[in-house]
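Batch job 17 of 40 flagged for manual review because the log was empty.
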Amino acid sequence: MDHVAVLARVPFLAEASPEALRRLAAQAEPRAFARHEFLFREGDPVERVHVLERGRIAATMTSPEGATVTAHIAGPGEVCGRVDLFAGPVFTVSALALSSGAALALPARALRQVLESEPACLRRFTVDLAVVVTTLTRAVADLVFLDVTGRLAGLLLEWASADGAIALPGTQSELAARLGVTRQTVNTALSRLAHAGVVRIDSPRLLRITDPARLARLAGVSPG
């Protein structure tokens, strides 16, 4: 594994100088992980963050009653734990592997040093955090103002290709966790959309939008 090449796939680290990337790569430790393994758990000290090379990681939060919701699903080129990098001292989410994969574990201190010494890198990191805040704000608004069908419609629009085809990025159980509901509730919402002629279900993970305007209205966005 070329550690420098893996780090350079991260948008904010791509702004760092070659020397800074080499220093950071020298402190990176390869880590393979299996499906359902935790890279870290909510409440663990922020000692290491992980740059994904392969696989998918869910950022999850658990209520005192044991209910779990997925805030984000990270893929290759993303840094798991970056939101808590400066806020610390513990992680506010858990990082749960949805598939097997590989990552580079970086000392949090070393990554902070790179950000503090590389202005262009820090600016891009700040932009990335702003996107995270905007996305979470929108998600909270959806929880308040939209029902499950509306929230599902929003995700389907986000994942749809230009021709209306949708390949779900995970299982329906993972989609349910993303929406904070049960798998049965997701199945019911999908069935309602299909029966209303809004989407067509070609397989459990392949859909096609058949009425884009109505799907957009259900999601609370302007069609087009």
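Reviewer: the log was empty due to a logging misconfiguration, but the result itself is present. The longest strand covers residues 48-54. Unflagging and moving on to job 18.
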